[in-house]
Write a structure and sequence with these properties.
Helix content is about 35%, strand content about 20%. It is an alpha/beta fold and about 350 residues long. Among the domains are: about 5-85, OB fold (Dihydrolipoamide Acetyltransferase, E2P), CATH 2.40.50.140; about 90-250, P-loop containing nucleotide triphosphate hydrolases (Rossmann fold, 3-Layer(aba) Sandwich), CATH 3.40.50. The strands form three sheets. Strands 10-9-8-11-13-12 form a six-stranded mixed β-sheet, sandwiched between helices. Strands 1-2-3-5-4 form a five-stranded mixed β-barrel. Strands 6-7 form a two-stranded antiparallel sheet.
C-alpha cells in the first residue's frame, strides 16, 4: 500500500503531521546532512519512512532506540538509508510486553487521538475498556470510544452507550456503522491529527479504518460465530493519510492489554473514585473498612459499583508491579555495567603490571 505512486509532490511532511514543534526538535540534526521523516511501518528490522523526497526503506543501528509507527526520525540518506536518531515522542501508547517481561512495548508514537473500538455485535468487556482507556490517557493523547457495528447491535444502542459512558468519565462515546454510514460524519469531525485505532480482533477496526479512508486499503476478516472474536487480519501497525486531513494508524488486535506504570491514566479512567477519595476522613484511606470512607459510602448508596472499585485496585496493583519490575531491571543493568567496567579496569591493571 505504501508506494511511490501514492506520494504527493508537495507539502509532504506537513500532510503527515510535521509542524513547528517537529521542526524545533529536528534543528540539532540539520548540520549533520540528515533529513526528517516519519515512520509509517516497522517490520523485519526495517522501517518504511516518508520523507520529503519520497518513501525510503531504512535500517537502524543497535545504538539507536528501535522505532515504532508514528515516530519522527532523522534519516541519513544514501543507497542504504539509516535512521540516525528518533525525535522525542510527544505522546506514546505503551503497554506491558505481551511476554510479561519488565520491558514496555510502544504501540504507536506521536498520537493525538486514540479511538478505542468496541463492537456492538458482541458483549462488551468493562475491564478491557477500562484498560484501553488507561493506556490512552497515560499516552497523553485524547481518547474517544467508538461503538462499532451499530447495524449488528445485539442490544439497544442507547443502553450500551450509557453503560460504556459510565466507564469513561470525560470521554466522548459514539455509535457508528461502517456499513450504513450512520454516525460516521460525527466521528470524522471528532477524530483529529494522528489517530490510532485500538481494540481486540473482530471489533471492526480495519473496517472502520476503511470507512474513514474512503477505500478498502486495510485488510479485513470475518469473526467467529461462537465468541465474536476475529483473526488478526492486521499484522502490522501502519500509518496512512486520511483524505480529509490527518493520518491513521491501524493496529493488530490486542489479546492482552497490560498497563505499564500507568497510575496517571488509571486515575483519569476512575476519576469519580479519585473525587470520592478526596472526601474520605483519612487521607490514606484504603477504602476497605475505614470509618468515614466516602468511596464505601458511595457503594452502599448505589452511586458506585463494587466491580468498579475492584477494577481500579487491580489496575493500580498491576501498574505498580510493572513499575517495580522496570526499576529492578534498570538497577540490574546498571550493576552489570558497573561489573563490566570493573573487570575491564582489572584486566588493564594486570596488563600494565606484566609490562613493568
Amino acid at each position: 500500500m505504501l508506494s511511490s505512486s501514492s506520494f504527493p509532490s508537495d507539502g509532504v511532511l506537513s500532510a503527515y503531521g510535521w509542524d513547528e514543534a517537529c521542526e524545533h526538535a529536528f534543528a540539532a540534526h540539520h548540520s549533520d546532512g540528515l533529513t526528517p521523516g516519519r515512520v509509517a511501518r516497522v517490520d523485519r528490522g526495517h522501517a518504511t519512512v516518508i520523507t520529503a523526497d519520497g518513501w525510503v526503506r531504512a535500517t537502524w543501528s543497535t545504538a539507536t532506540e528501535p522505532p515504532c509507527t508514528g515516530d519522527w526520525a532523522a534519516v541519513r540518506p544514501g543507497e542504504r538509508p539509516e535512521l540516525a536518531a528518533l525525535l522525542p515522542r510527544r505522546t506514546a501508547i505503551t503497554r506491558s510486553s505481551a511476554s510479561r517481561t519488565s520491558r514496555a512495548q510502544v504501540l504507536a508514537a506521536n498520537v493525538d487521538t486514540v479511538a478505542v473500538v468496541v463492537s456492538l455485535a458482541a458483549s462488551a468487556s468493562a475491564g478491557r475498556i477500562e484498560r484501553m482507556l488507561a493506556l490512552a490517557w497515560e499516552s497523553g493523547a485524547v481518547p474517544v470510544i467508538v461503538l462499532a457495528k451499530a447495524d449488528q447491535a445485539e442490544r439497544p444502542v442507547d443502553a450500551v452507550r450509557d453503560e460504556v459512558a459510565a466507564l469513561a468519565p470525560g470521554v466522548e462515546v459514539l455509535a457508528v456503522s461502517s456499513v450504513s454510514g450512520d454516525g460516521m460524519d460525527v466521528l470524522t469531525a471528532v477524530l483529529t491529527g494522528t489517530i490510532v485505532l485500538l481494540g481486540p480482533s473482530g471489533a471492526g477496526k480495519s473496517t472502520l479504518g476503511n470507512a474513514l479512508l474512503g477505500a478498502d486499503l486495510l485488510a479485513t476478516g470475518d469473526v467467529r460465530a461462537g465468541d465474536g472474536k476475529g483473526r488478526h487480519t492486521t499484522v502490522h501497525r501502519e500509518l496512512v493519510r486520511l483524505p480529509g486531513g490527518g493520518v491513521l494508524i491501524d493496529t493488530p488486535g490486542l489479546r492482552s492489554v497490560g498497563v505499564h506504570d500507568s497510575e496517571g491514566g488509571i486515575q483519569q479512567v476512575f476519576a469519580e473514585i479519585e473525587d470520592l477519595a478526596a472526601d474520605c476522613r483519612f487521607s490514606d484511606c484504603a477504602h476497605e473498612s475505614e470509618p468515614g470512607c466516602a468511596v464505601l459510602a458511595a457503594i452502599a448508596d448505589g452511586t458506585l459499583t463494587r466491580r468498579r472499585l475492584d477494577s481500579y485496585r487491580k489496575l493500580l496493583r498491576e501498574s505498580a508491579w510493572a513499575a517495580s519490575r522496570e526499576d529492578a531491571r534498570l538497577r540490574a543493568e546498571r550493576e552489570n555495567q558497573r561489573k563490566d567496567i570493573t573487570r575491564h579496569l582489572r584486566a588493564t591493571y594486570k596488563f600494565r603490571d606484566r609490562q613493568s
